[in-house]
Amino acid sequence: MSGAASLRVVTLAAQAEMALVRRDAVAGPLLAQAARAADGTAAGPLLGQSAAMVRAEPDREAIRQAALSLCRMALQEAQAQALGSAP
Amino acid sequence: MSGRLLGQDASVLAAAGADVQALGEIEEWARRAVVVPAGTEVVDAHVHLGVDRDGHKLAAADLIADMDANGIGRAVAFPADEPGSGGDFRDANRRVTDAAAEHPDRIIPFCRVDPAVGADVAMGEAHASGARGLKLHPVAQRFAPEADECVAVVRAATDLGWPVLFHAGFGARALGPAFAALLDCVPDARLILAHGGRGDHRALAAATAGHPDVLFDTSIAALPDLATLPPARVVFGSDRPYGDHAQALHLVGCAARVAGWDATALHGVLGGNLMRMLEGPAA
User: Fold this and answer.
1) Are B247 and A72 an interchain contact pair (Cβ–Cβ within 8 Å)?
2) What is the pLDDT of residues B227-256, one digit of tens each?
């Protein structure tokens, strides 16, 4: 994955993380964008699962927290990639 | 599959349509991101028990279940933001020390105070009930780390032999000068700065570089911050119930990969550094 591609995933996942923390409805679209950007990387399935959960149940607290956990793991994976450590 | 996934009740997630099998596989993958060295007890430095006024909650039984599922041996626990009608956290502190008495091999109790509201009495009660440290939250309780009342409680905690865990991240304030000023007043303080100092990490790391008894916890921290710290200054934390153990372990695994931490470093990050701090000041 190129540096630009990693940076794109990091940016979108970080935005989605804060949207989830703030219970902002924009979290769903941001997660969907991040999942597309991360397709084919370790972060992709995490963001895809997170996006699907938020899309199905945007207002359920347990879903929000689980989606947030997945989003943070995806962000961590993308940051590790950007910092030069592919798994 | 256990009854809990990513810190949540799995049945609630299933009822909401989540793919619990996929979540279970992800959780297991996340746990495997960090290779726990043989002989290492994983100790979580940052857990809130109780019911926060923002709605987050965690009961001791659920914490123990999460710890069992994730291979966490012990956890430092302190109250959520529930100061009570008196504003002094005394009831919430009592609930935490009661939970620790019920689970003495799993929960290490810290107390929480508002430096402006009866802190002396609250800390004295908690000390008598077995508390082993202090948690302070400058954002929630609206005080500055270098303010006189905060310096006084950090001084008092240090005199009791307690480490002090500070919320240190996410706010608007610059934290480097604030903690430098606090350490000027209490140079022998032993501090754990939560969240890796996320939000002002560079300044905090610089301001505390000469203080080996100032550590950073990994709870909801930023990977680039953790990866640039000496591992001897890092302690594992989850911030349950705001974070969860699988995500927290995955973060440490990523930091180890990026920074090249060896088994000795990981042993310290996952528990050794924290237990050493709880035992006493650095020589």
Assistant:
1) yes
2) 999 999 999 999 999 999 999 999 999 999
Q: What are phi and psi of B48, to 5 degrees?
A: -100, 130
Could you tell me the sign of the dihedral formed by the alpha carbons of A30, B27, B5, B247, in that order?
negative
Q: Which residues of A touch B24 (CB under 8 A)?
A: none
Q: What is the dihedral of CA B133, B137, B143, B145, to 10 degrees?
A: 60
Task: Note the maximum CA span of chain B.
Answer: 54
pTM: 0.96
Neighbours of A61 (CB within 10 A): 14
> In angstroms, how far apart are the furthest CA atoms of chain A?
36
| Residue tagged 């082993």 (tokens) | B132
Q: How far is A61 from chain B (nearest CA, A)?
A: 9
State the Cα angle at B205 between B200 and B207, rounded to 5°. 95
The interface predicted TM-score (ipTM) is 0.95
Which of B223, B228, B229 best probes binding to A when mutated, by most A CB atoms within 10 angstroms? B223
DSSP-derived secondary structure for B80-93: -S---TTSS-HHHH
